[in-house]
Amino acid sequence: IRCGEPFALARYGDGELSLLERRSYKGIDAWSFDPDSDELGARRISELIADGFALAEDYDGMHLGLPFYFCAEGTHDRDRHQLLKGGGGNNQWLRDFAPHLHRRIPPRQLVYSWQWSNLNYGPVFEELLSDLRKLSFLTIVICSENIRKTRTASDQLPSWVWSVLTVPDDGVAWFTTHMQEIEHSARALARAVNGVIFLFAAGPLSNMLIPLMTRANRANTYIDVGGTIDWELKGVRSRDFHPKADNPVVTRDTNYI
After folding, report:
1. What average pLDDT score do residues 57-68 get?
2. pLDDT tens across 201-213, in order?
3. Reduced to 3 DSSP states, what percent helix, strand and coil does the chain have, rounded to the nearest 5?
4. Mind listing the pLDDT tens digit for each residue in 33-49?
5. What is the pLDDT of residue 151?
6. Range with lowest mean pLDDT among 28-37, 68-77, 201-210
7. Which of 60, 149, 169, 255 is the most buried if burial means most Cβ atoms within 10 Å?
8. How far is it, in rounded angstroms, from Cα 255 to Cα 192?
9. Strand, helix or coil at 79?
10. How high is the pLDDT of residue 125?
């Protein structure tokens, strides 16, 4: 971002893995997936999720967030006996994703699924937001419609947000019933602007649209930030690592050593 070079970043976890392999899934968020309810939709969703991997093999600006373990998730509990996974790193998921990487992807294009989380929240994610404020890029946020619960007017949004586009809370179900319309609109949006930063917080719909929009126009930047942005965007503390209102700088619910 500081260099002004467009890029794309999509992050993958167990939900995206289930979509990729067309397996039923019910997560902690509002969306769920039943591949038997719409075979055509399930196949198209799997294709779009897989396209992120294919794009990364051909375009060095496409970055993949995979569930590696990393120190910013915390390493051990206080007694150093139990590895704290924090919902991020998972070796089995990595093994399951491996068959979908058909060619070697350079390490510089690989980041962590929880790139913005836990101890990375302050020095990495908040630094990203600081850059958006200072560098004055046009930034469009694509997020769940539940933002309307806490943000009812544009002047309640952060100053760096140029526009917000909302999608239904269950974006997967919405996509299966409006596939062609959504794909057409996403491509048209990507082609309509240049030099814009798109921040996605739309669940697995982010993983479907980021490769599609990147293929449509590489002159923009597309970043999957997920629920990490809830505190900044909605004023909602949806993650343990989000600052607490009474002590926004130093207080977290997690213990790291």
Report:
1. 93
2. 999 999 999 999 9
3. 45, 15, 40
4. 888 889 999 999 999 99
5. 82
6. 68-77
7. 169
8. 45
9. coil
10. 86
Give the global pTM: 0.88
CB crowding 159-190: b at 16 or more within 10 Å, else e:
ebbbebeebbebbbbbbbeebeebbeebbebb
> What pLDDT, on a 0 to 100 scale, did the predictor assign at position 58?
92
The per-residue DSSP string of 113-138 comes to TTTTSGGGIIIIIIHHHHHHHHHT--
Crossing angle of helices 204-216 and 179-192, in 10° steps, is 50
Cα 65–Cα 71–Cα 73 angle in degrees, nearest 5: 70
Instruction: End-to-end CA distance of the chain: give it in Å, rounded.
Output: 31
Pairing mode, if any, of strands 110-112 and 139-144?
unpaired
* Strands (DSSP E) found in the chain: 8-11, 25-26, 32-33, 62-66, 110-112, 139-144, 163-167, 197-201, 221-224
Q: Which conformational region is residue 237 in: left (phi greater than 0), alpha (psi within -120 to 50 degrees), or beta?
A: beta
